[in-house]
Design goal:
Length: about 90
């Protein structure tokens, strides 16, 4: 089956943000038919505009997922990402 690479931005600033991102990367690696191709280093940035909140922890993950249109392709990835986010 053909695959396509998706780059997924990750971010958290509540609770244990680093643990949240570690769990998110694990969930991405466990997606059916997906292969985790890489993860950037962790970037910590200060909030902009609304400054009275914790720093943001950010990273990007590269995931190879099944190519295709409709339910089996990008829609399935979007639904999986929404589930991980919740």
């Amino acid at each position: 089956m053909a695959k396509v690479r998706a780059y997924i931005g990750l971010g958290a600033n509540l609770g244990d943000a680093q643990a949240t991102l570690t769990a998110a990367v694990g969930a991405l690696a466990a997606l059916p038919g997906a292969t985790l191709a890489g993860v950037s280093r962790l970037y910590v940035t200060t909030p902009v505009e609304v400054a009275d909140q914790p720093d943001f922890h950010n990273a990007v993950a590269a995931v190879d997922v099944p190519a295709g249109s409709g339910v089996g392709g990008p829609i399935a990835l979007l639904l999986a990402l929404k589930s991980i986010e919740r």
